[in-house]
Structure prediction request, 607 residues.
Amino acid sequence: MTALSALAIFSASGAEKVTFEINSPLTVAVGEAFRVEFTLNAEPDKNSFQAPTFEGFDVIAGPTVSTGTSIEYRNGQMSKSYSYAFTYVLLPQAAGNVTLGAAEVKVDGETYRTTPTPIEIINEGSSQSSQGGGRRQSDEEPADIQSRIAKDDILLRAVVSRGSVYKNEPLHVSFKLYTRVPYVNLVPESAPSFNGFWSQDLSDPNAARVGRETYNGKVYETRVLFEYLLYPQQVGTLTIDPVDLTVVAQVVVQSRNADPFFGRGHEVFNVPRKVQSQRTSVTVKPLPAGAPSSFTGAVGSFTMDTTLPSEHFAANSAETFTVKISGRGNLTFVQAPKLPLPTSFEQYNVKTTESINPSSSGISGYRQFEYPFIARAEGTYSIDPIEFTYFDLQRNEYVTLRSRPMTLEITPDERGGGDAVVMQGRGLSKEEVRLLGEDIRFIKLGNPQLRAARVPFLFSGAYWGLLGLIVVLFVAVYASLRKRIRESQNLALVRGKRANKVAVQRFRAAKGYMEEQNRHAFYEEMLRALWGYMGDKFNIPVANLTKENVREELHKRGVSAEDSQRFTNIITQCDEAQYSPAESARMGDVYSEGVDLISRIEAVIKR
Prediction:
């Protein structure tokens, strides 16, 4: 039994993905010591940790190693996880932008490295942002909180991969948020608009890309909000319109009221700040002149594979010619190449199948075209090659792909069928084409005697019954649509209905951060879940989303004063845990309290 338990622990811990990360501030002041922490969620090999050189800093203390081990027993399975932290206390030497190099550590012989991290060192008092070392004096008024966030502390930029492209050449654009202050909520005010472009949305709300960058000499935390792949459809100068966004930032200030025992505490203020991305222009060049007649607008890099029909087959039987075009480019706009068949051949609708894989570098995959046809007359026919032309962006020229020429020998129809006339353009499928050699019959001559085979459906009892059923269904659908339109026009009702669903999604994200032991991200997501639920449920604007307004709305809806106080306590615990070096509350307790509170509020409101 002991051996089986040990094996279960080893399997569970070994399956966990190893992460090695660095935690450091965005900005520090000259002469002000700060902490840098390298965290690992696995047990490192002995003496394998290697710190960076810390060029530009004096190492005051470190490394201080802290370890933790947790064992969890769930559904009869036992799992074990580790946490290692290597902490240094550094002192900046001079103002400027300095990049901390990568630290290294080995786990089971495999090397892991942190990402090089930029840090901005400023002169004391030069920054007034809440993360730049600015200090709130005890006599500062609440009206001055807005000025604590500098104009360039929150930016929204449209990052375009290229400023000049050919028509139908892929262009990648991302709307990236740059922040130097913490924030609790993002409220989009307008959606991206791409006039003159065909767009493919690449955004993934469940896997937002975050990072750290230096822009205009300052270090920012970055987050990609929207990501698109664009294909320009017009020649000239096209404009990407700005996107508007409201960011609810947080400012932490020293409290004016001192506690006789604990001294001065801290207050957290939510400050809404509207930002807008810049208007971006893209120059779209026309494709070079002299394109072959087989060019239909394909741009990129492609290959062509063809599957030829049998070289010998009988007249009045069906065959298929298949063309598969693969590669990277504007595959969505690739058209079926022209198949040059003799006039005695009957060609039917082309069947298209495709596999499209969009990414930030373009669209890759294939499009396959099947050409069903029937040869009606016997003989030997030479078929010209199929041609497909595309514009190669690497070689900056047109490239023509050709199939090999083929010769078809059509033998007499063994069933003795004569020439039959079939109307062109019927739009038959491939399966129907195969049956044409069997179901074609000659026109019967003579004086036919025609009679009705069955009673006409028009104006019969079944006709009136079906008509009545259609009218009833139409009335029901019309009433349902009217109800949905009325509900969708009531924005407050829509926000209130989706408040619980959005909160549940954010709680799930917070639980994931809790399992990863990511304290900062956990408390940030908990704050978003609680504030976002209250704002959506009670239709409170972001600018008015305060503890007092929430307590007032809860009281109006019959929520007990005890639950109102629980909400205030949870918000306070999350705020303190985000900015306190020591954890004042267990993440598991805060998570359980938050979920239970929202459930109790939902139960009271639905009565």
About this structure: The two ends are 51 Å apart (CA to CA). Residues 1-14, 126-140, 418-427, 440-446 have pLDDT under 50 and may be disordered.
